[in-house]
């Protein structure tokens, strides 16, 4: 086949603009939000759904959740919940009444409105790895994260069209002081990417600063910023059964200003949750739903997402495991429950592997396919995560993007179309039993777009591959990483907006940034 | 947790016997046939199923299939099909009447009746890689296959409880002359394994010799051998639209003697089949269903399996691609059609990667999960395949078995159970918001079997893993391979049976084995 002309043809059309903007290092798929057309995998019977719901409700009614944030406790008390110190118990009627106010889908619009995403409604959004304190690449090995590495990973986040949201810090830049880290990273994120941004709920100043920076980057008035979601936060409960002060503070701040909120209990069965998966899921739901109930009480209709991060520990060592069979089933069960509650679902790509090897891929593939099967709408850590979240890796990021593009292509309705043109009876008749389909018109008219074209897989035979250096996947990924970063062009930003952002960062640094207690 | 005692406990019980028999190198799951409890992923609407069915039937009715085997043509003519030279056209009424005679499930019993497998009825069986002419391991690189390597891979086939059937030659021993190769490999297979065996349909002598050797190994009379399936063959059509002489010959021989038959068209969209996936599936079905119709006409109720191996080519190079999004959808669509026709389904594990790296794992994982989603009953090449089937690799075999065990565990109903014990409300109450689940009774009673325990994944943190040599998955797999092969103990075989097998091989070698035309 005419490979060269095929490549040329592909870099035109929809993908042309994106490629030119980002530097056409690889032939990637265009920006598009995949829709999950599969019927979800539902391991629970109707009785199973009822049993887990009842378990979650009884946890909230009988055992209660510890809300360490006094303001949240006061609000829930006012709402009629039973308060005992910091322990809040809420009846299922209240919870279900609040959940009924939550939208089943909503949009978030970043500074580039073309990057607007809808959360829910069958969409499936992929988000970069977030929050690892360490970095690994093929040359450096494992090292503490730096701002330079964080910038590189933000460039990958922007470059890949299959990454739809710029989530948390793709690696923690531990060379930047925590008091001003959010200012530097958000400046980098808002200038290097134009996708939806995120604020860590780690104290009032950080959340407020990020909201202000997102507002400035979008060229928005305060009213415009608050009129519809422009960004989001993600909080984790402190399992078992606890929500801490700053997370709830950030949660409530975002809710009040109309921004989106995701709550993701990190419930490792056998450690912070029961050893049985249904128990771990029930506890996770209880921890998440009470936060969503709080949000809906504060602002009915607040855009909320139910997150799942239920996995298991290694019973030999206590180490967390990811992408396991148990993890897959927990994700699918939580998907069923999210549909029961009418809430959008967040899941994750994840693995326990220390390097981007075979184990990393089967664990991540398991995690990603369970997100598909669960009908997850947001997939955190979809690219770049290693060592149970302790390492961010650019090679892993690139390898994961190859898998994400395949999932996106998997959802293309063309693959399962059954029109007469697809059944191709006349082509089959024309070729007969002695011919070949390469040459027939039916093939010639379709070959350029008929199949998924990987950017990282090497489909050459062993000998060609060997003559060309016999590169293993991780080595090819390293080269792609370097090429993307070296050729990266940031998305456009108006000069006055950039200056306003710079001035904000400078002022807030002069004021000392966010307080730190160490 | 008490890791050591946990390991000891696990090697007792069900798995104990298998471990002692095979040498307890690793802690693997016990022999068990997984049941696929998931609702299949069905990308086709009812109209889509009807459209593909109609396409397949029109291929058979209007275009016809070339049957190069004169005997098969004569039989089909007698059955009322329209014959024009070697081209056979058959009406949908005849095809559907014949398919209605085929069982939706059946058993095959090998020499060890404990290794009996049921094909169909929700079971999911995994089969070793079959037929690559080359071998790759971490030390040898790619080399032509030998009998010694073939024996090593047969040892892995026997050792792993997650491999249920000993399919074709796990690597072609090209150091054994083709005239006697089937005698040597079948002797090795029948002495090194006690699982269901397979005969290549590559000429009368080979099929008859293998049937005879399986009969001898099972200690069966001729009548006993023919009373129920003891082995099977797998044939491939010569796509497009052709069945060759020896494949049909072997097909009919096995059918007449009551053995199981699998027909698997190898339809690469864009090459031997239409570039559109529905067209490739329709053509594949036509090629398979006419062989099954022939089998049912010869022997109503013959145990038949519908195989799928529909993938796509790389449109740049023409190279076959595997585990692609298109491959996944074709597998799922064929699964829907298999249920429509009431036939058991064979799918495959596969990849285009040249070495067991990241690409190998994401492609194989895609292929295996699509087999799950399709409701496939037999999964060929489930362990050990590389380079589009041109390489068999022991490391890849071991890595794939880790994935297969996870799929097996994924189907364990315990993972999604929702009894009050699973919801664990009292444990959650007991631990409260300040405790930990490690210590509670609910965990202690269950931790030994609560979670899947991998034998190859390394879940230690980076530093522990690094201090212990920083082995990547493929290196760990190589070590496991060597340990298994070195410690291998063959399953028991009565001495007189072994002698009878040896005598048969000796006699057939003296007679010249099978004729070769080169």
Description:
The structure is a homodimer of 518-residue chains. Chain A has 518 residues and is an alpha/beta fold. The first copy, chain A, has a domain at 97-411: Trimethylamine methyltransferase-like (TIM Barrel). In chain A, 47% of the residues lie in helices and 13% in strands. Chain A has 21 helices and 20 strands. In chain A, the strands form five sheets. In chain A, strands 6-18-17-14-12-10-9 form a seven-stranded parallel sheet. In chain A, α7 (178-192) runs antiparallel to α21 (495-510), α12 (325-341) packs parallel to α13 (358-374) and α13 packs parallel to α14 (394-410). Chain A is globular. Chain A starts with a helix and ends in an 8-residue tail after the last helix. The relative contact order of chain A is 0.14. Mean pLDDT of chain A is 94; it is low at 1-22. Chains A, B: Belongs to the trimethylamine methyltransferase family. Chains A, B: Pfam families: MTTB (PF06253). Chains A, B: Keywords: Methyltransferase, Transferase.
